Predict the structure.
Amino acid sequence: MGLHSFHKFLKERSKKELPGFEAQKKMSPVPLDPDFVLPRTESDTAHPSSVLIPLFPDSNNDLHVILTLRTESIRHAGQISFPGGRREGTESPEETALRETEEEIGIQRSNVKLASSITPLYLHRTDNQITPFVGFLEEKPKLIPNPAEVKEAFTVSLNELLSDENFVEEDWELSYTTFHVPYWNIHHVPLWGATAMMMSELLVLYNEFRKADNF
């Protein structure tokens, strides 16, 4: 089938200023206490981390994204995330994203065509500076979850994420205060937090692409 034309669009679009936090914040949890401020600036001790946002087209050329549900025994247990993790040794951010994806869900790095990175996100709770990379596959790959890290690997279409029917907002009591939390109801586990914030920027870019391509 070949790579989706969104790949070429992103490679060119990445040469200009990205939507950044303005796009991410649509899905950012907001503390109800106005005096409670979340750190958003990378610390001096932040761990360099990378994730891959893997995309593939279906038979109608609609794009789908691959997500993972983390096992209960690792960081971010029981949450939906992109495949990824912390840098090892001297590897580049791109190498981290591709290695972690291969280790976690069995997608061979040689089958992934990277388009670009999008805006990094600092996660203060784990002191990680996350760089997301958007990668394309020509078709849906065979997903082989590594049970040590991934409970489930699944896919969702970008159109489902763009639908207002799947967007929910609630107030949640988290460990330290109450937050107003936007999330996508596309799985029995909510898609929220850092993964949702990175996805939000991707969807802004995808909407730009659709308008430019007259979808």
